[in-house]
Every structure is written in structure tokens, then in C-alpha cells.
Specification:
Elements: H1 5-11, H2 16-21, H3 25-46, E1 48-53, E2 59-66, H4 77-84, H5 88-100, E3 108-115, H6 124-134, E4 140-144, H7 150-154, E5 159-160, E6 164-167, E7 170-177
Parallel strand pairs: 3-4
Antiparallel strand pairs: 1-2, 2-3, 4-7, 5-7, 6-7
The protein binds coenzyme A.
Coenzyme A (COA) binds at residues 11-12, 15, 61, 113-115, 120-126, 144-145, 148-149, 151-152.
């Protein structure tokens, strides 16, 4: 399993999009490490995986990026299929919606960032974001899964860019950071 899969699984345990994919918490707990294992593997092949460690040296924060012009291929498709299970069609459809929301012009894409719940508030995500954004040569784009995280991203210069309704009233929040 990719280092970082369990970090993102824990960080996203109560994420609205993850709950939409796997409404039952037991199922979600089993699926999330597999899901993030495949997502990290795909970015490792053709994207950027940034890691931060806590004061004890344990991996505690992971950010996944796609540089301009890159759309990461599906890695570990069987692992992903095991993760999505009966929710495969739902997950694929949502994934297509998220992809379609991306700007047509070149951009750095923040695909995900998450910090272990016990390590949050220590500046780990800020350090990863600032490092990558300070050297960004293009506008940057992300889709926040929850309205609550929008102010966090605004600290780094991202601005809300409309809303995207996925299904059953689930709304996600595209954000753009001009360069
Ligand atoms: C959002 C997240 C990545 C921040 O990670 P972190 O390592 O705790 O972030 P930092 O320590 O660098 O920054 C924490 C600061 O951001 C603020 N912050 C964190 N989450 C926030 C939120 N949802 N809304 C507003 N502010 C938030 C904290 O209050 C803290 O403020 P302070 O510096 O004034 O004390 C982390 O809370 C997380 O993993 N959340 C669950 C996964 C998630 O929602 N990811 C984004 C999905 S789109």
C-alpha cells in the first residue's frame, strides 16, 4: 500500500464526497485506504505527491497534484474496483463531473490534501501548499468537497468559482487561484 493512503483515509473519513460514495461508515472505513492507495499511485506515476511529517517523524499530511497538461491515468484499477464496489457507477459519474469542471486552460490541479486528524492545526498542510504554490507558474485549481474548507483555501489566494451539484444535493466548490 502507498505510504499516505491511511493518512488520506483518516483525513477524509467524514468527507461529504466520501460519504456519498460509501454512505455506510463500516463500508467506508474499509474502502477508503484502497481508494486512496489507487489515487496516490496514479499521481505518483504522472503527477506530484507531497508528504509532510509530524514532529515525531511520522507521515501525517499528503497532497496530490497534477501539473499543467497532466491528467493522471487510473493506477491499480483492481484496487480501485475493490474500493468502489457497488458504488462504482456513482464514483465514475462523479469523477467525470469533477473532471469536466476543470478549466480548459493550463493549470496546476490540487487533487487532494489531507492531514491526520491528530496532527491537524500544526501547519503541515500550510507548509505543503505554500511550497508548491510559491513555485507555481500557472493558475491553480481545486474542488473543495465541503463548504467548510473554502475559507482555509482562501488563505492561499484561492477564490470560489461557482458551485457544482453532484447528486442528491451534494454540492462541491471549485476554486481558482490566479497566478
Ligand atoms: C483542511 C486540512 C487539510 C488542513 O490541514 P492542517 O494540517 O490541519 O492545516 P494547517 O495546520 O496548515 O492549518 C490549520 C489552520 O487552518 C484552519 N482550518 C483548517 N480546516 C479549516 C476549515 N475547514 N475551515 C477553516 N479553517 C480551517 C485551522 O483553523 C488552522 O487555523 P490557524 O492556523 O489560524 O490555527 C485538514 O483539516 C484536513 O485534512 N481536513 C480533512 C480533509 C479535507 O477536508 N481536505 C480538503 C478536502 S477538499
Amino acid at each position: 500500500m502507498e505510504p499516505g493512503a491511511c493518512v488520506l483515509a483518516a483525513a477524509f473519513a467524514d468527507d461529504p464526497l466520501m460519504i456519498y460514495f460509501w454512505p455506510r461508515s463500516r463500508r467506508r472505513r474499509k474502502a477508503l485506504p484502497l481508494f486512496w492507495d489507487a489515487r496516490i499511485a496514479s499521481r505518483r506515476q504522472n503527477g506530484l505527491v507531497d508528504l509532510a511529517h509530524d514532529a515525531e517523524g511520522n507521515l501525517a499530511c499528503v497532497a496530490l497534484w497534477e501539473p499543467a497538461g497532466v491528467v493522471s491515468p487510473m493506477a491499480k484499477p483492481l484496487t480501485m474496483l475493490r474500493a468502489t464496489g457497488r458504488s462504482t457507477i456513482r464514483a465514475l459519474a462523479a469523477g467525470r463531473q469533477l473532471e469536466r469542471a476543470r478549466p480548459a486552460t493550463p493549470h496546476l490541479y490540487l487533487a487532494a490534501i489531507g492531514t491526520l486528524p491528530g496532527s491537524q492545526g500544526q501547519g503541515l498542510a500550510t507548509a505543503l501548499l505554500e511550497r508548491r504554490l510559491s513555485s507555481a507558474e500557472q493558475p491553480c485549481f481545486l474542488i473543495s468537497d465541503s463548504h467548510g474548507t473554502v475559507p482555509f483555501y482562501q488563505r492561499f489566494g484561492f477564490e470560489p468559482h461557482g458551485e457544482l451539484t453532484i447528486d442528491h444535493g451534494l454540492v462541491v466548490y471549485p476554486m481558482v487561484r490566479a497566478n
